[in-house]
Automatic annotation (TrEMBL), chain A:
This is AP-4 complex subunit epsilon. Residues 53-595 form the Clathrin/coatomer adaptor adaptin-like N-terminal domain. Adaptor protein complex 4 (AP-4) is a heterotetramer composed of two large adaptins, a medium adaptin and a small adaptin. It comes from Carya illinoinensis. Residues 770-786 have a biased composition (Basic and acidic residues).
TrEMBL record, chain B:
Its main location: membrane. The keyword Protein transport applies. Residues 3-141 form the AP complex mu/sigma subunit domain. PANTHER family: ADAPTOR COMPLEXES SMALL SUBUNIT FAMILY (PTHR11753). It comes from Carya illinoinensis (Pecan). This is AP complex subunit sigma. GO terms for biological process: intracellular protein transport.
Length: 980, 142
């Protein structure tokens, strides 16, 4: 069949004639087309190379034939072989008078050469000539070549002509001239004076030229949007005209008017409207027009819609547009096409920054995408999850990420996702224990791909513990770390970085809780050192760990029996080629022969995180300096003051004190010769023991750290720095300050209450995990998915449907302040509403409930009156509205609202399951207290929604939870059915 | 920059057209084509037409035996690129009449000329089929 077709084509080719393709060429193409293996193809191409090499040098080749040869060269390169022997002939062909040949020549040259190739210089002349041609097609061909071949140095040769061509009578020429200028602009800063041309050409009569001009303008605006704010109106007008089909029909694509131009304009508007209310307001109308006009049944319509969403999420938020965008997104997500789902997930990730609640409406769709076997979709969804991670769902998200990370081989993406895991874990970790477990996994499976810093952070965390005076918890943390490492250590082929962490932790805390004997720990360490005998860093860590373990044994008054294998290892290392390993081995031998008192001073137990105060002024040297000065030395002159002097003169001055200015400077630098120790001595030693040489084993207190720091910095190969001074900045205590699982949430700086509430949500959330299984699964949605949804999205979705529908009314009413004030309550009430859909709760009751909340959530606002007014008439819609209000608020309010509602939701949904009802009365009491104390404890906000409700409604609430846990927005009927 | 390269590859993984908008050496092209073709050809009809590869994305579309692959930057609208591929195919269709792999092979330079009209500096500059084809038709007549 295929052959028949080939024959048919061939016949057709013959009849066309104009192409003048020879039999030979047709045969070549055919044979390439018919190859079935790469080897076969290579054979043909190599043969072709030989043929061409012979023939192409022939002086009298007919031009037509030559063109064919050039195309054959293109084939050779395209199929991955070198055709450089023929480049010069392609260059020659650009000189030809025939347009077709000339253009083919230019094409071949642009395909073969990069802009820095030596042959380019031979073409510049031709290009110059062709730019002056009367035939506009020749000019176009030359401009194409200009875009590909002119580099920074050759720009001046053609620049004047290109600028002149901007005014050419043919639109095709103007368009290409603009693009050539665009290219120059990309290549060189020397053409920035020509930038106004782009503005001018935006008003070109020809839509093609205008459309092309959008490309350079987009680049310019990306760099500096502020200088182009004046063009907003022009862009909006153009977009409007395009959308109204004012452009020639030929730009239509699948009934859409010039969609590619629309998309580029929307991209530009997104840049110009970012954070600029005034500019954005000018865009609202046109964007909403396009939203309306787009045909969502075609791909291109959806492409434009997607671009609208990008625009809407980037410009100053407009509630109406955001709502439309959300609708489009939900269409995308519900579509059967994976492409649209992908776009939907991406769009969701964009919109979520502005209206954080929107993801909840689509939780099941998101989870479907996450579990889809399609990697592309999965990764996009991870991207979305990354954006919506908060402390309440970090565990689920990171677990998922790690599972995925383990399953893939693509090291590029593995590195990427590992760094994401680390980032999220560092930012949101609910507990130190979880953090350590997570890091262990990341290290175990992607250890070679993560940053060294991550390892140091982990060690630091284990050493510092919670940062509070809770020693029991600290030591528990450490022993759990030790235990997990002892378990992991046996695994084959662990990454070096992870082994370093393991060795360090085992050395520091292996024997600390007395569960494991010194010989057990050292035995394990020995195994590691032997198993990874070609990794010197790991060996060094292991030896130092031995030393610490033995030191703590000696300090505890026990006799040290070095294992035989350790002994032989140490002996072997003391003859090592690595001086670092040697030194460690000798130090170890020296230390274990010391008595208890000395060892306690050298290696005090658990001193790794004691702060080392670095005395940068080196005050301890003052005496010495004074002495030297008295002895006639010159005072030190700071570097900044004699920066003009060259290093060489400095150097010479060392020999003879001729340049007296440098005299003391030299000395001041010489003294602290071992670079690290003196600084630490400066901090930790008594002045009387100053300047003890490091290598001597007679350290005084705290030199344990000195040893670690010094020896590690000795290892030239690694950049490991255990000096903890710099690290603290990153690992500020606040992150892990609280001992409860509720790490205070750094993403919610807006409100005190918001933060604490989120904490509450965390608590509850983690508790519910275990109980969640008891929920009855829903009919269509698998329980696992529900579970996942609940843990990802805070477990509440019952508001979805109504949220979107009711939202409209409320935003129209324009009442914002009271809404946000009652947000947490809204979540509660909406539960009730779902239960008792027919019999509303009496509004006075609600109001009573509402008051304490209001007072506690936003103590500064006094919305009681507004609240009353709001609640009476539209109670249902308002309470149900909660999910989407965020879209209508200004950013800071959104923040407040988002937090409050998020926690409100999760707490209201979880509490009914997890807390026993006995403390309801208690919490009611508490709520009263909240009214006066805005900063009530962390757990309080979790409870007050429940406290607000009468007991029976609470029970009903729980019942509803049991029945229809996560009715998705996709099947509201199901939910209604359940309610009867 | 937008578009980084446009490839046409048949289902055996043989390159039928390659246009790069940033310079890559022969070896780099070979390696890249091998990698992404393997990646894209392994995917089925239901999966997304987009694949992430290193720090960019590949948007691809299959027509009979021929795959069109376009490498784009991460901020590009994938769906629009997918339609751009279709526009390219429609344009070739209009010129060749029911275009097939062999048309592109026999008239490689013409396929390139069309691309030259449509994409410059990695940006889509022309989407009107008549504007794209008119210089090519003029050359044919000459």
């Amino acid at each position: 069949m295929e052959q028949l077709k080939t024959i048919g084509r061939e016949l057709a080719m013959g009849s066309q004639g104009g192409f003048g393709q020879s039999k030979e060429f047709l045969d070549l193409v055919k044979s390439i087309g018919e190859t079935r293996s790469k080897a076969e193809e290579d054979r043909i191409v190599l043969h072709e190379i030989e043929t061409l090499k012979r023939r192409i040098t022939d002086p009298d080749i007919p031009k037509r034939k030559m063109k064919e040869y050039i195309i054959r060269l293109v084939y050779i390169e395209m199929l991955g072989h070198d055709a450089s022997f023929g480049y010069i002939h392609a260059v020659k062909m650009t000189h030809d008078d025939s347009l077709l040949l000339k253009r083919t020549g230019y094409l071949a040259v642009t395909l073969f050469l990069n802009e820095d190739h030596d042959l380019i210089i031979l073409i510049v002349n031709t290009i110059q000539k062709d730019l002056r041609s009367d035939n506009y097609l020749v000019v176009c061909a030359a401009l194409n070549a200009v875009c590909r071949l002119i580099n920074e140095e050759t720009i001046p040769a053609v620049l004047p002509q290109v600028v002149e061509l901007l005014g050419h009578s043919k639109e095709a020429v103007r368009k290409k001239a603009i693009m050539a200028l665009h290219r120059f602009y990309q290549k060189s800063s020397s053409v920035s004076h020509l930038v106004p041309n782009f503005r001018k050409k935006l008003c070109d009569n020809d839509p093609g030229v205008m459309g092309a001009t959008l490309c350079p303008l987009f680049d310019l605006i990306t760099i500096d949007a502020n200088s182009y704010k004046d063009l907003v109106v022009s862009f909006v007008t153009i977009l409007k005209q395009v959308a109204e089909r004012r452009l020639p029909k030929s730009y239509d694509y699948h009934q859409m008017p010039a969609p590619f131009i629309q998309i580029r304009l929307l991209k530009i508007l997104a840049l110009l409207g970012g954070g600029d209310k005034q500019a954005s307001e000018k865009m609202y109308t046109v964007v909403s027009d396009i939203f309306r006009k787009c045909d969502s049944s075609s791909n291109i319509g959806n492409a434009v819609l997607y671009e609208c969403i990008c625009c809407v999420s980037s410009i100053y938020p407009n509630p109406k547009l955001l709502e439309t965008a959300a609708e489009v997104i939900s269409k995308f997500l519900k579509s059967g096409s994976h492409n649209l789902k992908y776009m939907g997930i991406d769009a969701l990730g964009r919109l979520i920054k502005i209206s954080p609640d929107i993801a909840e409406q689509h939780q099941l769709a998101v989870i479907d995408c996450l579990e889809d076997p399609d990697d592309t979709l999965k990764r996009k969804t991870f991207e979305l999850l990354y954006k919506m991670t908060k402390s309440s769902n970090v565990e689920v998200i990171v677990d998922r990420m790690i599972d995925y990370m383990i399953s893939i081989n693509d090291s590029h993406y593995k590195t990427y996702i590992a760094s994401r895991c680390v980032e999220l874990a560092e930012q949101f970790a609910p507990s130190n224990h979880w953090f350590i477990q997570t890091m262990n996994k990341v290290f175990e499976y992607a250890g070679d791909l993560v940053n060294v810093k991550v390892a140091h952070n982990l060690m630091r965390l284990i050493a510092e513990g919670f940062g509070e005076e809770d020693d029991a918890a600290d030591s528990q943390l450490r022993s759990s770390a030790v235990e997990s490492y002892l378990r992991i250590i046996g695994e084959p082929k662990l990454p070096s970085l992870f082994l370093q962490v393991i060795c360090w932790v085992l050395g520091e805390y292996g024997t600390a809780d007395g569960k494991y004997s010194a010989s057990y720990i050292t035995g394990k360490l020995c195994d590691v050192a032997e198993a990874y005998s070609d990794d010197e860093t790991v060996k060094a860590y292991a030896v130092t760990a031995f030393m610490k373990v033995y030191a703590s044994e000696i300090a505890a008054g026990r006799k040290v029996d070095m294992l035989h294998e350790c002994q032989s290892l140490v002996e072997e290392l003391s003859a090592s080629h690595s001086t670092d390993l040697q030194q460690r081995a000798y130090e170890l031998q020296a230390v274990i022969s010391l008595d208890k008192h000395a060892v306690e001073n050298i290696l005090p137990s658990d001193a790794s995180c004691e702060d080392i105060e670095v005395d940068k002024n080196l005050l301890l040297l003052d005496n010495y300096v004074q002495q030297s000065l008295e002895n006639g030395a010159q005072p030190y002159i700071p570097e900044s003051e004699h920066s003009g002097l060259s290093n060489i003169s400095n150097f010479r001055s060392q020999d003879q004190h001729e340049a007296s200015i440098h005299g003391l400077r030299f000395e001041a630098y010489e003294l602290p010769k071992p670079p690290v120790p003196p600084r630490i001595h400066a901090a930790s030693l008594e002045p009387s023991t100053e300047l003890v040489p490091v290598s001597e084993p007679s350290y005084s207190r705290d030199t344990h750290q000195v040893e670690t720091a010094a020896s590690i910095s000795d290892m030239g190969s690694s950049e490991l720095k255990l000096r903890l001074d710099g690290v603290q900045k990153k690992w500020g205590r606040p992150v892990y300050s609280s001992s409860s699982p509720s790490t205070s949430n750094s993403t919610t700086p807006n409100t005190v209450n918001g933060v604490t509430q989120v904490d509450g949500a965390v608590n509850v959330n983690s508790k519910t995990r275990s109980t969640r299984d008891s929920r009855k699964p829903q009919v269509e949605i698998s329980p696992e998915k529900q579970k996942l949804a609940a843990s990802l999205f805070g477990g509440s979705s019952q508001i979805d449907k109504r949220a979107t529908s009711a939202n409209h009314k409320v935003t129209k009413a324009g009442i914002h302040a009271p809404e946000k004030a009652q947000a947490p309550k809204a979540a509660v009430v909406s539960n009730q509403v779902t239960v008792e859909k027919t019999n509303h709760q009496p509004s006075p009751d609600l109001l009573d409930l509402g008051e304490p909340t209001v007072a506690s959530t936003t103590p500064s606002v006094d919305p009681f009156k507004q609240l009353e007014g709001l609640l009476d008439p539209t109670q249902i819609s308002v309470t149900a509205n909660h999910g989407a209000v965020g879209t209508t608020e200004s950013p800071d309010i959104i923040g407040l609202y988002g937090n409050a509602s998020a926690s409100g939701q999760s707490s209201s949904s979880e509490i009914s399951l997890t807390t026993n009802r006995d403390d309801v009365n208690f919490t009611v009491g508490l709520v009263d207290a909240t009214v006066s104390t805005a900063h009530a404890g962390t757990t309080l906000p979790t409870q007050f929604p429940k406290g607000l409700n009468p007991r029976d409604s609470l029970e009903k609430d729980a019942l509803v939870r049991h029945m229809g846990v996560t009715p998705s927005s996709q099947n509201p009927n199901l939910f209604r059915d359940l309610l009867g | 920059m937008g578009i980084r390269f446009i490839l046409m590859v048949n289902k055996q993984g043989q390159t039928r057209l390659a246009q790069y908008y940033e310079y890559l050496t022969l070896e780099e092209r070979r390696a890249l084509e091998g990698e992404i073709v393997r990646k894209c050809l392994a995917r089925n009809e239901q999966q997304c037409s987009f694949v992430e590869h290193r720090n960019y994305k590949i948007v691809y579309r299959r027509y009979a035996s021929l795959f069109f692959l376009v490498g784009v930057d991460n901020d590009e609208n994938e769906l629009a690129i997918l339609e751009f591929i279709h526009l390219l195919v429609e344009t070739m269709d209009r010129h060749f009449g029911n275009v097939c792999e062999l048309d592109i092979m026999f008239h490689l330079e013409k396929a390139h000329f069309m691309l030259e009209e449509m994409v410059m500096n990695g940006c889509i500059v022309e989407t009107s089929k008549s504007n794209i084809l008119s210089p090519i038709q003029l050359m044919d007549r000459a």
